[in-house]
Amino acid sequence: MAVHNADIALLLDRMADLLEIEGANPFRIRAYRRAALTIEDLPENVAEMVAAGRALTDLPGIGEDLSDKIGEIIRTGRLRALEEVEAHTPSTLALLTSIPGLGPKRVHALHEVLGIKSLADLEKAARVGRIRDVPHFSAATEAKILEEIEKKRMIERRFKISTAEDFAEGLTRYLRAFPDMGEVTVAGSFRRRRETVGDLDILAICEDGPAAIAHFVAYDEVAKVVSKGPTRSTVMLRAGIQVDLRVLRKETYGAALHYFTGSKAHNIAVRRIAQARALKISEYGIFRGDKRTGGKTEGEVFAAVGLPYIEPELREDRGEIEAAQRGTLPKLVTLEDIRGDLHAHTTSSDGKSTLANMAEAARALGYEYLAISDHSQHAAVAHGLDPRRLSAELDAIDRLNDTFDGFRLLKSSEVDILADGTLDLPERMLKRLDFTVCAVHYRFELDVAEQTERILRAMDNPRFTILAHPTGRLLTERPGYAIDLDRVIEGARERGCFLELNAHPMRLDLDDVHCRHAKELGVKIAISTDSHSTAGLKAMRYGIGQARRGWIEAKDVLNTRPLQELMRLLER
Ligand code: DGT
Ligand code: CA
Ligand code: CA
After folding, report:
1. Percentage helix, strand, coil, to 5, in the chain?
2. Is 198's C-beta closer than 6 angstroms to any atom of ligand 1?
């Protein structure tokens, strides 16, 4: 098994964290941190250096002891010293460092002074105001800690849209199988294609409410029935996702669908217009006085307030009602508009499918092009390609392209943006590519000015084409690095670069708000799946949902263009 520099750096850094939590000798902690940095930034593979008989003690900050420990990691993939420290540090304590603003040093202090061992201990102490008295803490940091715990909880309580989709599909299939069941629709944030979903709101048409509800609560994934009435019920699925079901009659379906699709802000705005017209719109229908005047379709709801149909993704009261009134609603991009994918990996780096299989899968989707963008060398954990391996990949692409008609593999690379803003490939390689997808994969801890500057400096390189997953966030797992996206979008406009909307359901990065900002500044986006297998190509639909939430039209997207036009656009 190949040991990458990043693997070694990770273990050394973890050791430093734990030692710091324990309150160990600062020199010892610093030695581990420095060694981790040295190894991470090394342009060559440490394991290969050792294999070639070269002494690691020649590297800055690495003495005999650390050299032995690194040797142990290379040989065994483990570090016994770390395992010993782990054995006597509660793992819940190490987890506290995931709260922004709580570094290992502060966690150590909280442990020492208040005996805090877990997130629960921390929250309790903060709530009763005991943290402010610990040296180097204040009432403000205490409030900030509570806020971060709350934020963490919020993030964890939501589900990625792909997860929600998975559960929704199984459940709606089950509901539709019930005799006499009419239309079954998932409304709420799911229908608005939000990147994460709090709970599922399902609407079903059925004349026999109680029977439909009985069928619903009998679903084998139901862990708990929270509430149950003749036409509505709330359950908790085993996976921890909550589902609300409402059973309706045909006549009220449109009004209910509009109401439960939301958002709440959009609903309130629509109902305000209705009131001005002496109408009342509720989940049960459209009423003038006591007389019901409609509500069978959503179209009737919008028509009642003098509006054309508004797509669910736009319903956030972010200007869609005004745009509808003026007749300037965007014509949102659809999956059918997409002609290719501009970010994909193969087995050459960290993908699971071969080059030939990826090409075949893209052709099966009816695409005109697929860009192969395996990692560059700095991304050692992802088996990044050095110039020699990249060169071989580009040759393989040429050979395959000779066999295609009406389809082309594009030559790209997911090029690491190095800490100083340079690109991780030499010019002689960059110029052989059709375009680049450039990404930040390390040094997430830079402050907002430094990180923004790093990216803008990278964009100064005329070979920089598309900024991959601009914030690096992982939905429900980690926030992005600090970055001034507005400046980055402006910088892309000035330099003729583009931004990616990474369609992977874990990323969906750019978010909707910044998609819209990019569009307003005329910066085109690439909706790309960042596929690591042939199956990954199907994630395009999530990116489309996010783009639609950002008011994006086909003309704002690079990969809705036919190949020739795309190639012209990608020329900076
Ligand atoms: P979520 O579940 O947090 O991802 O977001 P939603 O939008 O699905 O919210 P949810 O499940 O609480 O409610 C579903 C929809 O029901 C919501 O989008 C709009 C509507 N709704 C809920 N509560 C209210 C309310 O108090 N007023 C109005 N006008 N609409 C509401
Ligand atoms: Ca919901
Ligand atoms: Ca709900």
Report:
1. 50, 15, 35
2. yes
Of 217, 248, 279, which residue sits at a domain end? 248
- 176 and 145 both lie in a single domain: no
Would the CB of 32 count as within 6 Å of ligand 1?
no
Q: How many domains does the chain have?
A: 4
Check if 199 has its Cβ closer than 6 Å to any atom of ligand 1: yes
Compute the distance from residue 463 Cα to the ligand 1 centre, in Å.
Answer: 46
Pairing assessment for the beta strands 414-416 and 408-411 based on DSSP bridges: unpaired
**Is the pLDDT score of 1 beyond 80?**
no
- Contact criterion met (CB below 8 Å) for 99 and 149: yes
The reply to whether 526 and 416 lie within a common domain is yes
The 10s digit of each residue's pLDDT in 312-367 is 999 999 999 999 999 999 999 999 999 999 999 999 999 999 999 999 999 999 99
280 and 353 in a single domain? The answer is no
Is any atom of ligand 1 closer than 6 Å to the C-beta of 312? no
Q: Assess whether 268 and 310 both reside in one domain.
A: yes
Using the structure block, give the residue that is written with the tokens 């395996």.
374
Residue 310's domain comprises: 257-326
Say how many C-beta atoms besides its own lie within 10 A of residue 314's C-beta.
23
Ligand nearest to the CA of 261: 1
Among 326, 357, 372, the domain boundary falls at: 326
